[in-house]
Amino acid sequence: MDLTRAAAGALDAADPLAGFRARFAGTDDDGPGRLLYLDGNSLGRMPRETPAALARVTEQEWGGGLVGSWASWIDVGTRVGDVVGTGVLGARPGEVLIADSTTVDLYQLLVAAAGARPGRDVLVCCADDFPTDRYVVAGVAAARGMAVREVPADLDAGLDPAVLGAALDERVAVVVLSAVAYRSGALADVAAVTAAARDAGALVLWDLSHAAGAVALDLTANGVDLAVGCTYKYLCGGPGSPAFLYVRRELQESLRQPIWGWFGQRDQFAMGPVYDPVPGIGRLAAGTPPVLAATAVEVGARLVAEAGIDRLAAKGRALTGLLVALADEHLAAHGVALASPRGPARRGAHVTLAHPAAWQLTQALVDRGVVPDFRTPDRVRFGPAPLYTRFVDVWDAVDRFRGLLEDGGWTGYPEERARVT
């Protein structure tokens, strides 16, 4: 593999997605000291179309149409949900809803799924999953008198399917797992895990937060029953943008979610005395949809759909493959180790590197114009979002990292624990 900067530039010249970069704010600077943003798996860049879309809703629909605009707002959760579902997730129309946060959506679907498996008293999750997932599982289990089985996972390689298989039995109601591990980027075999759980009579609730928009997902083909995910990472919906939830069409009528709000009611404006959930994905709605935030989500999701999830996934593998190869070539001699799966088929769209001084290195990198993020215990995580990240951006980021290691410029930074004081 040619690891020169010229070779990286040639990859950019041949990139069929290269034109999308200009459609995002902050990508104009091409100078040698430009900001290298490699944290797209935490917060995606803002699409240039987003301010105009928000202005249209605020100035024309809210400012001019006032309450009359609710005719076009009331179905925003399902309308934008279909954009995400059909354009990003490989779902069918009517299977995805935009509403609330990932945590709230996870709670709703977990309670509903547990209720759909009466007589089973165990919830399974991964000990290394994102904290909110584990917390929600623990809280639901405590409220329902259920037990939790936390299966261990390798910090870098992810969950071993055999270990998960050993945890599945006739007591398990629901398994909660991430499609892409938030720390290492390890990619789960969604189809195989879903099938194994189904064979055991359990449902799987997938967290797609680090996958949606960067990993090729086909929820229909993979037989997925339930999923949630955020929209502010690869979908570029903006800070705090609402999450999505997915329920396979054939499962929808058997679920009763715990939050009985009027937006999930069958005859919403009859204001009736008894809750009767509407058919379809709308039964998972609770309160008034976040119209402005959902508008921003729609812009980002349409960009992802236009680019094509298969092409984005292929570029993501190429970007992370280049990053791994450059780290081997230039950083390993300085004590930096790969903390993600090496094989591209086992990896999502981010790469994590381990070093004892990862916290200090992360802060020093930011000061040198490279934006990754830090993850415990000693990881620097790079998320080169394929919609707008170039191969030369990856090359330059590793080059600056190498320079930092060679000149020791990170040694004056305090240890991570000082951050909390």
How many H/I helical runs?
A: 12
Q: How many domains is the backbone divided into?
A: 2
Low-pLDDT stretches are none
Based on DSSP secondary structure assignment, what is the total number of beta strands? 13
What is the helical fraction, as a range of percent? Answer: 25-40%
* Class derived from helix and strand content: alpha/beta
Query: Mean of residue pLDDT?
Result: 96
Radius of gyration: 22 Å
Fraction in beta strands: 5-15%
Please name the fourth-level CATH homologous superfamily of the largest domain: Type I PLP-dependent aspartate aminotransferase-like (Major domain)
**What's the CATH architecture name of the largest domain?**
3-Layer(aba) Sandwich
CATH topology of the largest domain: Aspartate Aminotransferase, domain 2
What strand order characterises the main sheet?
2-8-7-6-5-3-4
Q: Please give the alpha-carbon distance between the first and last residues.
A: 45 Å
